[in-house]
């Protein structure tokens, strides 16, 4: 997974105009792996598997259940189901990459919903920086542009503490 992560981040760097290895050296050194199981729910409209949020990561790499939809993304005020594609990953931009890109890339607001008759399991690989890493807009994106930094500098440790305390409202604190 580390090699896949670095390849994805190098492609994102190329698109942003950053050095290909920008994320090496602390910014992707603290990954976490989780499996999420959602049992069937006879009345799925009465519950959410996971409420709407943006991940507090650089990126999140998701392997969806092969047969059951559950991931939804918010686009223009409408929730859209992300259909599983066999042998493919979903890559979500996280809040930390939103900060580093100075808003050029935006964290994906998403949620997980349950199914009335079929259980679903997904595997998630969260890409976090080391706790001591400084998270701020990349200087290379600010130099020579008329765009000021949209986000304050913060350590990953401070960011995560604020995120788990304030949830989605953490974005307002960072601007």
UniProtKB/TrEMBL annotation:
<dbReference type="GO" id="GO:0031418">
    <property type="term" value="F:L-ascorbic acid binding"/>
</dbReference>
<dbReference type="InterPro" id="IPR027443">
    <property type="entry name" value="IPNS-like_sf"/>
</dbReference>
<protein>
    <recommendedName>
        <fullName>Fe2OG dioxygenase domain-containing protein</fullName>
    </recommendedName>
</protein>
<dbReference type="InterPro" id="IPR050295">
    <property type="entry name" value="Plant_2OG-oxidoreductases"/>
</dbReference>
<feature type="domain" description="Fe2OG dioxygenase">
    <location>
        <begin position="28"/>
        <end position="129"/>
    </location>
</feature>
<dbReference type="InterPro" id="IPR044861">
    <property type="entry name" value="IPNS-like_FE2OG_OXY"/>
</dbReference>
<dbReference type="Pfam" id="PF03171">
    <property type="entry name" value="2OG-FeII_Oxy"/>
</dbReference>
<dbReference type="GO" id="GO:0046872">
    <property type="term" value="F:metal ion binding"/>
</dbReference>
<dbReference type="InterPro" id="IPR005123">
    <property type="entry name" value="Oxoglu/Fe-dep_dioxygenase_dom"/>
</dbReference>
<keyword id="KW-0479">Metal-binding</keyword>
<keyword id="KW-0408">Iron</keyword>
<keyword id="KW-0847">Vitamin C</keyword>
């Amino acid at each position: 997974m580390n090699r896949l992560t670095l390849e994805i981040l190098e492609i994102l760097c190329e698109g942003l105009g950053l050095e290909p290895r920008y994320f090496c050296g602390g910014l992707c050194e603290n990954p976490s792996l989780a499996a999420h199981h959602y049992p069937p729910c006879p009345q799925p409209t009465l519950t959410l598997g996971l409420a709407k949020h943006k991940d507090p990561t650089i990126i999140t790499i998701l392997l969806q259940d092969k047969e059951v939809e559950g991931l939804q993304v918010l686009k223009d005020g409408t929730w859209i189901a992300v259909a599983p594609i066999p042998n493919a990953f979903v890559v979500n931009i996280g809040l930390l990459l939103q900060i580093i890109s100075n808003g050029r890339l935006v964290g994906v607001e998403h949620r997980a919903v349950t199914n009335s008759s079929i259980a679903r399991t997904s595997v998630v690989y969260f890409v976090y920086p080391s706790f001591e890493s400084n998270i701020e807009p990349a200087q290379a994106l600010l130099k020579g542009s008329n765009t000021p930094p949209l986000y304050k500098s913060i350590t990953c440790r401070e960011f995560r503490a604020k995120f788990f305390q304030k949830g989605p409202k953490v974005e307002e604190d960072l601007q």
